[in-house]
Task: inverse folding
C-alpha cells in the first residue's frame, strides 16, 4: 500500500482531465439518445446477426449433416434386420444377428426374444421409444460411461434395439457451441469497438459543425467549419454552411458599415444644423427669423435626409435578390437618361451623345438601371468641366462612357467606390459620395462589373453585364 | 371637402390637422386603425390620409376592409417603409398614392389636391384640347400654340407641358413632374428638373406674352389658372 501516495497525483490529474473533457463537450456521452450509442448498437446487432447466421449454416453443414446420416444408417439397419427376421427361422436370425452385432463397430445392437438378450448389451433399456424416434441412454462399459442414442423395433419373435455411439457427435456439438459462444462474444466486442470507432468518426464532424454553430451563436461570426480533403457529403455541408456564414457576416458588416457611416457623416451636417438653429433661436430675440435662414436650414435637413435614405438604399441594393426583373432594352433606358441630363450639359456647354453600337437586351430593373446610367452621366457632366465631350456607347453586353475631363487620380481609382468617399477636389461641391457605390451595387445586382480607366483623353467607364 | 387623417404619431397628426385646416378642408383625425376604420365607414369623406403602421389595426388592413365595403374614395398612404416592394403592396391593396416619411408638407398638399381633382374629374370626358390663357395644346395632333404662333416641342417637353397644363392653378412638385414625365420611380435629387422647366419656359413664354409658369420657392411650379 506504500504505492498509493505516489499514485494519488496521477489519479487526480486523470480525473481532472476526464472532467474537463466532459465539460468541454468533447466526450461522447453515453446517454440513451446519443447518436453514437444508437449507431454502435445497430452496428453491433447487425454484426452479431451475420455471425449467428454463418454459425447456423456451418452447423447444419457439419454436425447436422453427420447426425442426419447416422440416423439414416440406423433406419437402414432396422429395416434390414426386420426383413431378415421375417425370412429366417428364429435360430438362423439369432445367428445372423450375433454375427452382425459382432461386426458393426459403429452401432450397438441388441435382441431380446423374451428369454434371452443377445448382442452387446445385457438388457434393453426400458426408456427407449419405438423406431424411428431416437432417445439417448448411457452405457456403462469398462468403468466408462458413454452416451448412445437409439430406438427399439418390435418384431414377431422379440424386440430389436439399434443404437449408435453418440459420444463423438455430442462432444463435437459441445465444442461447436463453445466455439460459437466465443465467436459471438468476439463479434460483440469487435462490433462495439469498430461501431464506436466509425460512429465517432462520423459524429466528430457533426460535432465540429455543432461547435461552430455554438460559436456563431455566441457572436463569433468569423468562425468557419473546417474542411477535410475528402470532399464528401460532410464537406459539401460544411461548404454550404460556410457560405451561409460568409453571407451573414457580410450582411452584418454592411449594417455595421452603415451605422458607422451614419454616425460619422451625418453628425457633421446635423451638428451644423443644430448650430444654425441655435443661432436662429438667439437671433429671434432681437429680430424675426428670416425666410432665407429657414430655407437654408430646410435645405440642410433635406440633404441629411437624402444622404440617409441613399445609405439605406445602398445597403438594400447590395443585399437584394434579383426578384422583379423584366426583359429590357438598355438603349431605351440610356436614351431617357441622356434626354434627362441633356439640358444640364447644354448649360455647361458640354457635348453629350449616345452611340448605339449594338442593341443590348437584358433582364433587369428599369428604374435602377436608369439611375445607374444617370448617375454616371451626372458625374461625367459634373467633373469633366465646361465644353467637355461626353459619349455614351451601348454595346451588346453593356455600355461604355467616355468624357474628356481630367479623370481620377490613379491612386484613388479604387476608393471612389467606397461609401461616402469623395475626392479632395470635389469635397465642396454638392453630392453625398454615394453615387458610384450605388452604381456599382446596381450593376452587380444585374450580374455585371464596372471598371474605371484613365485614358489620355479623359475618364472611361466600362460596364459589362455577363 | 372632408378629409380623414389616420395617424398615430400625435405631433404629425396635429401638424397635418392644422395644415389641412388652413387649406380650407374639414378635417377629422383618428389615432389608431380601428377608430379610423370606424370613422371612414360612418362618414362620407372625400379623402383619407392613412398611416401604414397603426396600433390595433394595420393601415393596409384598414384599406382593404374599406375597399371590400365598397368605399372607393381616394386614399393616400403615409409610411416610413420606403422600399419599392412596400409601395407596390400599398398601391395594390387599393391605395391611390404613397408618400414616404419624412415628406415635405408641400408635397403632401399637392398630392392631396391632385387626388381630389382626379376624383372630381372622373366623370368628365377626356379632353382633346388643353387651354391656359392663350396657350393651347392639341393632344391628338400633339401640337402647341401660343396665340397664333406654333411652338415646337420635343416629346419630353410636350409631356412636361401637358402635365403642367392639366394641373393648371395647382402647385406641382419636382418629384411629381419627374414621375409623370419620365416615368421612373425615384427622386433624382438634383436641379435637373429645374433645367428642363427653364428650357420649356423659354420656349413657351414668348416676347410680348404674359408669364404663365411661376416658380413656387422650395416646392415646385404652378401654371397660372385656366
Result:
Amino acid at each position: 500500500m506504500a504505492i498509493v501516495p505516489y499514485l494519488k497525483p496521477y489519479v487526480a490529474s486523470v480525473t481532472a482531465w476526464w472532467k474537463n473533457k466532459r465539460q468541454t463537450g468533447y466526450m461522447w456521452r453515453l446517454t440513451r439518445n446519443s447518436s453514437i450509442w444508437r449507431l454502435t448498437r445497430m452496428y453491433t446487432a447487425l454484426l452479431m446477426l451475420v455471425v449467428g447466421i454463418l454459425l447456423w449454416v456451418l452447423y447444419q453443414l457439419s454436425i447436422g449433416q453427420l447426425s442426419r446420416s447416422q440416423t439414416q444408417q440406423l433406419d437402414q439397419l432396422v429395416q434390414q434386420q426386420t426383413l431378415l427376421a421375417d425370412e429366417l427361422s428364429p435360430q438362423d436370425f439369432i445367428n445372423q444377428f450375433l454375427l452382425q452385432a459382432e461386426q458393426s463397430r459403429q452401432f450397438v445392437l441388441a435382441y431380446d426374444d423374451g428369454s434371452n438378450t443377445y448382442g452387446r448389451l445385457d438388457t434393453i433399456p426400458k426408456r427407449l421409444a419405438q423406431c424411428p424416434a431416437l432417445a439417448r441412454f448411457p452405457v456403462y462399459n469398462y468403468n466408462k460411461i458413454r452416451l448412445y442414442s437409439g430406438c427399439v423395433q418390435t418384431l414377431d419373435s422379440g424386440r430389436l434395439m439399434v443404437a449408435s455411439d453418440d459420444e463423438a457427435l455430442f462432444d463435437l456439438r459441445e465444442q461447436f457451441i463453445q466455439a460459437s459462444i466465443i465467436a459471438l462474444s468476439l463479434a460483440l466486442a469487435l462490433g462495439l469497438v469498430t461501431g464506436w470507432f466509425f460512429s465517432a468518426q462520423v459524429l466528430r464532424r457533426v460535432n465540429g459543425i455543432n461547435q461552430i454553430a455554438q460559436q456563431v451563436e455566441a457572436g463569433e461570426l468569423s468562425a468557419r467549419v473546417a474542411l477535410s480533403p475528402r470532399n464528401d457529403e460532410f464537406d459539401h455541408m460544411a461548404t454550404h454552411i460556410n457560405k451561409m456564414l460568409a453571407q451573414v457576416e457580410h450582411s452584418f458588416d454592411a449594417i455595421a458599415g452603415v451605422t458607422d457611416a451614419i454616425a460619422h457623416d451625418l453628425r457633421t451636417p446635423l451638428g451644423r444644423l443644430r448650430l444654425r438653429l441655435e443661432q436662429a433661436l438667439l437671433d429671434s430675440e432681437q429680430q424675426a427669423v428670416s425666410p432665407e435662414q429657414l430655407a437654408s436650414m430646410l435645405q440642410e435637413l433635406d440633404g441629411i435626409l437624402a444622404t440617409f435614405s441613399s445609405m439605406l438604399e445602398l445597403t438594400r441594393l447590395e443585399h437584394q435578390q434579383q426578384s422583379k426583373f423584366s426583359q429590357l432594352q438598355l438603349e431605351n433606358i440610356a436614351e431617357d437618361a441622356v434626354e434627362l441630363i441633356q439640358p444640364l450639359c447644354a448649360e455647361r456647354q458640354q457635348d453629350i451623345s449616345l452611340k448605339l453600337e449594338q442593341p443590348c437586351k437584358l433582364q433587369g430593373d428599369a428604374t435602377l438601371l436608369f439611375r445607374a446610367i444617370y448617375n454616371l452621366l451626372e458625374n461625367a457632366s459634373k467633373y469633366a468641366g465646361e465644353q467637355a465631350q461626353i459619349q455614351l456607347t451601348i454595346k451588346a453586353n453593356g455600355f461604355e462612357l467616355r468624357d474628356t475631363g481630367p479623370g481620377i487620380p490613379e491612386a484613388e481609382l479604387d476608393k471612389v467606390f467606397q461609401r461616402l468617399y469623395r475626392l479632395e477636389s470635389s469635397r465642396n461641391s454638392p453630392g453625398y459620395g454615394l453615387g458610384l457605390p450605388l452604381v456599382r451595387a446596381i450593376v452587380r445586382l444585374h450580374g455585371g462589373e464596372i471598371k474605371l480607366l484613365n485614358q489620355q483623353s479623359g475618364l472611361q467607364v466600362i460596364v459589362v453585364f455577363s | 371637402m372632408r378629409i380623414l387623417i389616420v395617424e398615430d404619431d400625435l405631433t404629425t397628426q396635429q401638424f397635418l390637422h392644422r395644415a389641412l385646416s388652413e387649406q380650407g378642408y374639414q378635417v377629422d383625425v383618428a389615432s389608431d386603425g380601428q377608430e379610423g376604420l370606424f370613422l371612414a365607414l360612418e362618414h362620407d369623406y372625400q379623402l383619407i390620409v392613412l398611416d401604414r403602421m397603426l396600433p390595433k389595426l394595420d393601415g393596409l388592413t384598414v384599406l382593404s376592409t374599406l375597399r371590400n365595403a365598397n368605399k372607393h374614395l381616394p386614399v393616400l398612404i403615409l409610411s416610413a417603409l420606403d422600399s419599392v416592394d412596400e409601395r407596390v403592396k400599398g398601391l395594390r391593396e387599393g391605395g391611390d398614392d404613397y408618400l414616404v416619411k419624412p415628406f415635405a408638407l408641400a408635397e403632401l398638399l399637392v398630392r392631396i389636391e391632385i387626388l381630389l381633382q382626379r376624383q372630381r374629374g372622373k366623370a368628365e370626358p377626356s379632353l382633346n384640347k388643353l387651354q391656359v390663357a392663350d396657350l393651347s395644346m392639341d393632344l391628338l395632333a400633339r401640337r402647341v400654340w401660343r396665340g397664333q404662333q406654333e411652338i415646337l416641342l420635343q416629346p419630353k417637353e410636350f409631356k412636361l407641358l401637358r402635365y403642367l397644363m392639366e394641373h393648371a392653378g395647382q402647385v406641382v412638385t419636382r418629384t411629381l413632374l419627374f414621375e409623370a414625365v419620365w416615368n421612373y420611380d425615384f427622386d433624382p435629387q438634383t436641379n435637373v428638373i429645374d433645367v428642363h422647366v427653364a428650357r420649356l419656359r423659354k420656349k413657351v413664354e414668348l416676347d410680348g406674352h404674359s408669364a404663365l409658369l411661376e416658380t413656387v420657392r422650395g416646392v415646385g411650379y404652378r401654371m397660372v389658372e385656366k
About this structure: The first strand of chain B starts at residue 2 and ends at 6. Chain B has a mean pLDDT of 85. The radius of gyration of chain B is 19 Å. Chain B touches chain A through 22 residues (CB under 8 Å).
